[in-house]
Design brief:
9 helices, single chain, 247 residues, 2 strands, mainly alpha, 72% helix, two-stranded antiparallel ribbon
Length: 247
């Protein structure tokens, strides 16, 4: 445990923790949107379990570094492009994220056929399965980043635990803010579309710096926050407005 008093190790821990929190933003957004489909009493539990599973998954992956290295080995080639197990996981996760975000956007903007249409509430197990699937993809990316930034497994595990605790504390307020502002929810879903495309590109060895993606969504969010401030005393924007009467 001599590394605890090492300035280099402490700097690595602080840097990696901050990076893990930033990389976990997409995880929080996804969990917040999925948990919002549950009854209000179950939503905090779903967010907590979702992030707890993310933490457990990342620690298990860190303790299985040899398996992660094998994931990066070439399985086969397609049109001269090497394809590894990691690539398949990233491409599959990206496609799932694209499909899920597109479905959610359609669900929020679609005009209901009847105002008396029964609202379908997702089951807790169904939501948790979806969270678990994306946790695996996000965790793989997070662990590979951690391995590239720190030399000691202990530093990586502590950084991940601290980052997940921060995410657990902030998940509730973020989820509530997204749910109260429909336009912010559309922006969050658009952000997930960007992340899905980035995962697919990463699977094809096309590296898109995450900074570009975060800057794009941060700029859009800033513009919308200014709009919210201007519309503070007005009625909020309503999605799924009633159908116009026929001429």
């Amino acid at each position: 445990m001599d590394w605890i008093t090492s300035p280099e190790a402490l700097v690595a821990l602080a840097t990696l923790t901050l990076l893990e929190v930033v990389l976990g933003i997409d995880n929080i957004v996804f969990i917040s949107i999925l948990s919002s489909k549950l009854p209000e009493k179950q939503q905090p539990r779903a967010r907590f379990l979702g992030l707890a599973l993310a933490m457990f998954g990342r620690i298990v992956l860190l303790l299985s570094l040899s398996w992660i290295m094998r994931l990066e080995a070439t399985l086969f080639e397609v049109f001269g492009q090497d394809v590894s197990g990691r690539d398949l996981i990233l491409i599959g996760g990206g496609l799932f994220l694209l499909a899920k975000a597109t479905h959610e956007i359609h669900d929020k903007l679609e005009i209901p056929e009847s105002s008396h249409k029964k609202v379908v509430v997702a089951s807790f197990s169904h939501v948790m399965i979806q969270i678990l699937l994306l946790d695996i993809v996000f965790s793989l990316n997070s662990v590979i980043t951690a391995v590239g930034m720190a030399d000691r497994v202990e530093i990586m595990i502590i950084a991940i635990i601290i980052a997940i605790i921060v995410m657990m504390v902030s998940a509730g307020p973020i989820s509530g803010f997204i749910e109260k502002n429909p336009i912010i929810k559309i922006l969050a879903l658009s952000f997930l579309l960007l992340i899905g495309m980035a995962l697919i590109a990463e699977g094809f060895e096309l590296h898109i710096p995450k900074g570009y993606l975060y800057f794009a969504i941060a700029f859009s969010l800033l513009v919308e926050l200014l709009n919210l401030r201007m519309r503070r005393n007005r009625a909020p924007v309503q999605l799924q407005s009633s159908r116009r009467p026929a001429d």
